[in-house]
Design a protein that fits this description.
By secondary structure, the chain is of the alpha/beta class. The protein has seven helices and eleven strands. It is globular. The structure holds 5-O-phosphono-beta-D-ribofuranosylamine.
Length: 221
């Protein structure tokens, strides 16, 4: 089904909450022809997200679905599903979307929703990953792209980039080093998906018909 539905140019919907630098790299990769896809809609739960301005500048439709206006997580997720499905995307891209989903939503998008997380998963799921990596005195840190499942930041991993942790690192310096890698690996994973090379079979990521190791593909700069 995945292969068939990708006969046409894949449609993407991107969900953001903030700055949208990962959204920008996707916009740029599509503009450069590196990724053949269209961004049909950018959804933000934060009305003032800077990423909305990036979408406007690129001529992409935007929609705010403000979680504060919904009485429950279920009601918010139902509205998200409605807004996303209206565009019939092949892939939903989470790019710094800072809300936890209900299983109803994650099951609905099984195998067609990707997230980028700023850690070497399964380490440091959740927030404040850079602070926690420094506190744990890790000598390496990084970013992971994974398929989204009902387990927060626990879905099957597609690709990981490793960065060194340096002695003088602060959380923000380390975050900036990781973000550079996010901007490389997320477009790679999205391109693979859009080309029909990347699929999720039950809980296993498959690339060109071969199962990936549990840490996904390593990206070594
Ligand atoms: C990134 O570090 C991403 O991994 C995390 O939130 C940040 C979003 O950055 N989930 P941006 O909005 O793409 O600039």
């Amino acid at each position: 089904m995945h292969q068939e539905s990708l006969q046409q140019i894949p449609r993407l919907v991107v969900l953001i909450s903030g700055g949208g630098s990962n959204l920008q790299t996707l916009i740029d990769a599509i503009a450069a022809g590196t990724i053949v896809a269209t961004i049909e809609l950018v959804i933000s739960n934060q009305p003032n997200a800077m990423g909305l301005a990036r979408a406007h500048k690129a001529g992409i439709a935007t929609q705010v679905v403000n979680h504060l206006e919904y009485s429950s997580r279920e009601a918010f997720d139902r509205e998200l599903i409605r807004a996303i499905d209206d565009k019939q995307p092949e892939l939903v891209v989470l790019a710094g979307f800072m809300r936890i989903f209900t299983p109803e939503l994650t099951n609905h998008y099984h195998g067609r929703m990707l997230n980028i997380h700023p850690s070497l998963l399964p380490l440091f799921k959740g927030t404040n990953t850079h602070e926690r990596a420094l506190e744990a005195e890790e000598d390496q840190h990084g970013a992971s792209v994974h398929f989204v499942t009902s387990e927060l930041d626990g879905g099957p991993i597609v690709i990981q980039a490793i960065v060194p942790v340096l002695e003088m690192d602060s959380p923000s310096v380390l975050a900036a080093r990781v973000l550079v890698q996010e901007h490389i690996i997320y477009p790679i994973a999205i391109k693979w998906f859009c080309e029909g090379r990347l699929t999720l079979q039950n809980a296993t990521v498959s690339m060109d018909g071969h199962n990936l190791p549990v840490q996904g593909m390593p990206y070594l700069p």
